[in-house]
């Protein structure tokens, strides 16, 4: 078959040999197990001890570090900084007295050495091999005997034992299976670099994510230095953590407190701005919403958003127009976040609404106020998960007042909580700020 019946592309159908079940499974005969089953309480948990990589933000996402014998898949867009991050990892690994092997199938050894020189990641315990053949790579592993292996990337590795082109479904599955078997038998931790498609999904067969123990996504915008490592799957810890990094010309560094990256530092409050606290995984982060409301330049009002879901922004605008009697349906509304942050959490609805109202009424909100809550179509305000953690983060960063839905009982010391039942109540709080200034907030 030359043409795929699903997508219509030519030359994309590959033949995969199917192994037929034989022996005991087919005949129904029982086979004596090589090792008996034991109580789960008698198994030593020390075999899954985490060893820190030395990169604190990556260790946070991994649940404490790399586990011996584990296979980790790190996927991301081209040029986002995957190789730079992993060079930093093997460098820190070698600095702690452990040996690492970097297998590069995309670049020559000289190219990797130039990047290592530029980022300051050269160490005698970091071994480098430019190799794309699986059998030769396994030979390097037996010869070097490292405790950490980086394969950059799994789509460039190939083996002569199966058919198919490098990067194809059959080759990627065979290479990943062989490397996983090597990790389990030798106890060495392996990090695989994976390519992504134009839709952001990991390239190759879907079974690739099932074969490995940990799946990480490396995200970032080309126009910003901010990079995020997000956990998708983790057999040794939580899969909802996120690590923040800054990519520079001379390397990459972790950001332990990224909240300051998403705030626009200004000496005086400006109308059309509002601050919220979002949860990315388990990490609370401060984000700022900026809004601009102007008269429509054409007959059709414009809605332009950046970093905020356009559907939710349109919904909040409609709620303000209908429930709060704010005639902004015929105005142009522009919404944006600071620092390239993406606010997908519904907890930012109240901050978006207050930013639009602040821009429409030209009333600045005090810089020490945060707004947290979800806005319903009826104009009601709803509580969101992790409210205590969000308020604690706001208090830690020096905020003195929080506008939240009703039901919040415990507030951190130094943080005053103002409850509002609906969007009209939240706008009355905004008007109170305008009438009394920051004295109301500080008092």
TrEMBL record:
InterPro entries according to UniProt: AAA+_ATPase (IPR003593), DNA_repair_RadA (IPR004504), P-loop_NTPase (IPR027417), RecA_ATP-bd (IPR020588), Ribosomal_Su5_D2-typ_SF (IPR020568), Ribsml_uS5_D2-typ_fold_subgr (IPR014721)
Organism of this sequence: Mycolicibacterium madagascariense
Span list, region Lon-protease-like: 332-443
Gene Ontology molecular function: any one: ATP binding
Known function: Plays a role in repairing double-strand DNA breaks, probably involving stabilizing or processing branched DNA or blocked replication forks. DNA-dependent ATPase involved in processing of recombination intermediates, plays a role in repairing DNA breaks. Stimulates the branch migration of RecA-mediated strand transfer reactions, allowing the 3' invading strand to extend heteroduplex DNA faster. Binds ssDNA in the presence of ADP but not other nucleotides, has ATPase activity that is stimulated by ssDNA and various branched DNA structures, but inhibited by SSB. Does not have RecA's homology-searching function.
Sites where the protein binds ATP: 76-83
Alphabetized Pfam families for the sequence: AAA_25 (PF13481), ChlI (PF13541)
Gene that this polypeptide is encoded by: radA
Comment text on domains: The middle region has homology to RecA with ATPase motifs including the RadA KNRFG motif, while the C-terminus is homologous to Lon protease.
Transmembrane portions of the chain: none
Motif (RadA KNRFG motif): 233-237
GO biological process terms, semicolon-separated: recombinational repair
Coiled-coil ranges (or none): none
Stretches assigned to the RecA family profile domain: 47-196
Keyword field contains Metal-binding: yes
Listed name of the protein: DNA repair protein RadA
GO cellular component: a single term: cytosol
Entry keyword set: ATP-binding, DNA damage, DNA repair, DNA-binding, Hydrolase, Metal-binding, Nucleotide-binding, Stress response, Zinc, Zinc-finger
NCBIfam families: sms (TIGR00416)
Family of this protein: Belongs to the RecA family. RadA subfamily.
């Amino acid at each position: 078959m030359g043409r795929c019946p699903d997508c219509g592309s030519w030359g994309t159908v590959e033949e995969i040999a199917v192994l037929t079940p034989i022996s005991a499974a087919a005949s129904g005969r029982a086979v004596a197990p090589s090792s008996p089953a034991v109580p789960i309480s008698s198994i030593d948990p020390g075999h899954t001890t985490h060893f820190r990589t030395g990169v604190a933000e990556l260790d946070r996402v991994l649940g404490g570090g790399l586990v011996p014998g584990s296979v980790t898949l790190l996927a991301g867009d081209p040029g986002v900084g995957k190789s730079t991050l992993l060079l930093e990892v093997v460098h820190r690994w070698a600095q702690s007295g452990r040996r690492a092997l970097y297998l590069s199938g995309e670049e020559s050894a000289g190219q990797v050495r130039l990047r290592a020189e530029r980022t300051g990641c050269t160490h005698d315990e970091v071994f480098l091999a430019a190799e794309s053949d699986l059998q030769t790579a396994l030979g390097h592993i037996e010869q070097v005997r490292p405790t950490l292996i980086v394969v950059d990337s799994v789509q460039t590795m190939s083996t002569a034992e199966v058919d198919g082109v490098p990067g194809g479904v059959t080759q990627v599955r065979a290479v990943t299976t062989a490397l996983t078997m090597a990790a389990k038998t030798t106890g060495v931790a392996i990090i695989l670099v994976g390519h992504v498609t134009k839709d952001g999904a990991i390239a190759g067969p879907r079974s690739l994510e099932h074969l490995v123990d940990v799946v990480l996504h490396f995200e970032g915008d080309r126009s910003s230095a901010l990079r995020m490592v997000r956990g998708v799957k983790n057999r040794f810890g939580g899969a909802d953590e996120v690590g923040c990094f800054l990519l520079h010309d001379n390397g990459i560094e972790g950001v332990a407190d990224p909240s300051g990256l998403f705030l626009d530092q200004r000496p005086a409050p400006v109308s059309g701005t509002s601050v919220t606290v979002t949860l990315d995984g388990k990490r609370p982060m401060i984000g700022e919403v900026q809004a601009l409301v102007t008269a429509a330049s054409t007959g059709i009002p414009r809605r332009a958003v950046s970093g905020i879901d356009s559907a939710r922004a349109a919904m909040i605008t409609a709620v303000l127009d209908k429930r709060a009697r704010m005639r902004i349906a015929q105005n142009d509304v522009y919404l944006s976040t600071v620092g390239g942050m993406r606010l997908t959490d519904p907890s930012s609805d109240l901050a978006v609404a207050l930013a639009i109202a602040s821009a429409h009424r030209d009333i600045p909100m005090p810089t020490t106020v945060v707004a947290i809550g979800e806005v319903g179509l009826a104009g009601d305000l709803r509580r969101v998960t992790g409210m205590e953690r969000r308020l604690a983060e706001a208090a830690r960063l020096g905020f003195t007042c929080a506008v939240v839905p009703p039901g919040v009982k415990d507030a951190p010391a130094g943080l005053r909580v103002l409850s509002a039942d609906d969007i009209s109540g939240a706008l009355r709080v905004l008007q109170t700020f305008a009438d009394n200034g920051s004295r109301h907030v500080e008092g």
